[in-house]
Amino acid sequence: MAIVINPISPVAFSIFGLPVRWYALAYITAFFFGFYFMKDLTSRKDAEIQLSSKQMDDLLTYFVLGVIIGGRLGYILFYNFNMFLHNPLEIFAVWHGGMSFHGGFIGVIVATVLYVMSQKFSGGTVKNSFKILDVLSVLTPVGLGLGRIANFINMEVMGRETTSAFGVVFAGGQYFPRHPSPIYEATLEGLVLFIIMWLLYSRTNIRKYTGALSGVFCMLYAIFRIICEQFREPDSQIGFLTSWGLTMGQLLSVCVFLIGLTVFGCAIRKNKI
Length: 273
Description:
Elements: E1 3-5, E2 11-15, E3 18-21, H1 22-41, H2 53-78, H3 81-86, H4 101-119, H5 125-153, E4 168-170, H6 181-203, H7 212-229, H8 248-270
Parallel strand pairs: 1-4
Antiparallel strand pairs: 2-3
Helix pairs in contact: 1-2, 1-5, 2-4, 4-5, 5-6, 5-7, 6-7, 7-8
């Protein structure tokens, strides 16, 4: 028996007639959460890299631009290039959804490297970049989880048809149950990944190995994403990439896993990247 859910408006509330969407709230909340906790973690005496309030303010700007520009360009290049080619103004309509984690992943890495170069930290650009990315890897799952919840509210990236008890039907829509794949992703890529990363950071000495946490994050995210993609309906404009069911998300996640494995291996073997 499917779970029937009444559709939720994508607009959370309005301010002076301007709609504030759940999707935007998810990003804003994630940025504020990340800023607050990263500021706390990097101000501690035992932090691998210490940042002042001014440096954190600058870093937040780099992160926001990296996530938005990278996420949007990633979605355009990986998922819907032809549509944006014929409707270029749609590139700027981010409130319609259409952000790619893998694009944002690249965007944040680039933004972090540019930030470190601008600050001229002692110890090298690559090593200090990974020190920042290690802290960020602990907090990123919160943003991923919030984003997937917003996807579910917007009835986006829903799962494949199913006869299981977990099937969800939105009232007034197509009447066949689908896996609530955004909720699966919010759970694995958000809650579970955050718990694992936080425990590794706070209860082990892995953070002493520069880049190790970043590598673990990449590998675990990739594994969880590949699992969740088994229940997620592939994008209609792409479909499956192979006859045996490979999706674009899985292909990109394999690349992320290999990157994470390489970074983790280097961090553990040499204690430096």
